[in-house]
Design goal:
Layout (H helix, E strand, L loop, with lengths): L4 E4 L9 H12 L7 E4 L17 H13 L3 E4 L10 H7 L2 E2 L3 E6 L2 E6 L9 H10 L2 H8 L3 H20 L10 H10 L4 E4 L6 E7 L2 E7 L9 E6 L2 E6 L4
Parallel strand pairs: 1-2, 2-3, 3-4, 6-7, 7-9
Antiparallel strand pairs: 1-10, 5-6, 8-9, 10-11
Length: 244
């Protein structure tokens, strides 16, 4: 019997990060294969320029996800700020179910809010403005209408520019805004939140209208380590994925 639910985010899979790809494939073949469900909360890929991109290791990831979903493990995916161009064809190819920016699940009796995390970083005004623009149907159509090679070059340029922009921003600006977190949790009537994006894994206790709430921040994967949040009827724990 399949047991447990896994939460991961911010793998940033790319050709130049083979160790992360290997760990993810190992995870899909072993821990995930024994799970009821896997939730990927954004930035599975370091960049996604369209579902027609078959450059390595994209096809291998598609194939392994398809094998997992066909084995009756449900896989859910929230697009992140790096792979928000993931579309319907990717879901058809893999059996993955796409989620909205905010979704509430019943996690063993507790309503739990899931999100990538970028929408909680409201102090980063420049990014939030870009996010609004880049998520319009017009912008999406404009980008996806370009030849694949041009999209790949554009993505490389945006990543290069983003790297230097981040160096100019304070760490606080790129972290979540506490008031935004509380307001969103109240809006969805949840006392538990799970997200990624900030690359600051931790469990934060906060108070909302006199009640204790928790914010679980998922770890980003790297060439050196890969942590997943596992939840079952006995609670949660952090598991490390090796596979090298």
């Amino acid at each position: 019997m399949k047991q447990g639910i896994f939460f991961i985010s911010d793998l940033h899979i790319a050709l130049e990060k083979p160790e992360i790809t290997q760990r993810f494939l190992f995870f899909l073949q072993h821990q995930a294969a024994q799970a009821e469900a896997v939730y990927i909360l954004g930035d599975l890929f370091d960049v996604w320029v369209g579902d027609d991109d078959s450059t390595p290791p994209n096809n291998k990831i598609r194939q392994q996800l398809k094998q997992l979903t066909e084995s009756s493990t449900q896989v859910f995916l929230q697009p992140g700020n790096r792979d928000f161009l993931l579309g319907e064809k990717f879901c058809q190819d893999t059996g993955v179910q796409m989620l909205d920016d905010f979704v509430v699940i019943d996690l063993f009796g507790t309503s739990t809010l899931l999100t990538h995390g970028d929408l909680l970083c409201t102090d980063d005004v420049a990014y939030q403005a870009f996010r609004i623009k880049s998520h319009t149907p017009e912008w999406r159509q404009y980008v996806l209408s370009k030849p694949l090679l041009l999209r790949l070059l554009m993505a490389r340029w945006y990543r290069f520019r983003s790297y230097f922009h981040k160096r100019k921003k304070s760490l606080d600006i790129m972290d979540v805004n506490q008031d935004t977190v509380i307001n969103v949790m109240k809006q969805f009537n949840c006392l538990r939140l799970i997200h990624g994006h900030t690359h600051r894994p931790n469990v934060h206790s906060i108070e909302i209208d006199g009640q204790v709430a928790q914010r679980h921040v998922l770890a980003a994967w790297s060439n050196e380590s890969a942590d997943v949040l596992r939840w079952d009827r006995n609670g949660y724990r952090i598991e490390n994925i090796d596979g090298l």
